[in-house]
């Protein structure tokens, strides 16, 4: 594995998965599914796609939305 990141294979929530085919990078939260092609760059993108949320909704649910 190059780049120094650690990857884990987990069950993909974006399709009917029977064995872990979603690869998640633990240091950044980046993910990519080898079967259905779902991918994103961080945990916010994951949450957004997992629950069909807008960016703002996902950020609010993860406690990342701060309005000054
Ligand atoms: Zn998938």
Briefly characterize the structure.
With 68 residues, the chain is α+β, with helices and mostly antiparallel strands. It has 2 helices and 4 strands. It has a 4-stranded antiparallel β-sheet with strand order 1-2-3-4, covered by helices on one side.
E-strand count = 4
Query: Poorly predicted ranges (pLDDT <50, ≥5 residues)?
Result: none
CATH superfamily: Zinc finger, CHC2-typedomain
CATH architecture: Alpha-Beta Complex
What is the count of DSSP helices, taking H or I runs of 4+ residues?
2
Strands side by side in the biggest sheet? 1-2-3-4
N-to-C span: 41 Å
The molecules bound to the chains, other than polymers, are: zinc ion
Please tell me how large the radius of gyration is. 13 Å
Give the ordered list of helices and strands.
Answer: EEEEHH
Name the helicity range. Answer: 10-25%
Question: What's the number of structural domains?
Answer: 1
SSE-based structural type: alpha+beta
Query: Which word captures the global form?
Result: flat
CATH topology: DNA Primase, Chain A
């Amino acid at each position: 594995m190059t780049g120094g990141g650690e990857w884990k294979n987990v069950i993909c929530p974006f399709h009917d998965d029977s064995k872990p085919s979603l690869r998640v990078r633990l240091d950044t939260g980046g993910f990519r599914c080898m079967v259905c092609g779902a991918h994103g760059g961080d945990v916010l993108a994951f949450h957004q796609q997992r629950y069909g949320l807008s960016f703002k909704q996902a950020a609010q649910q993860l406690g990342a939305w701060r309005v000054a």
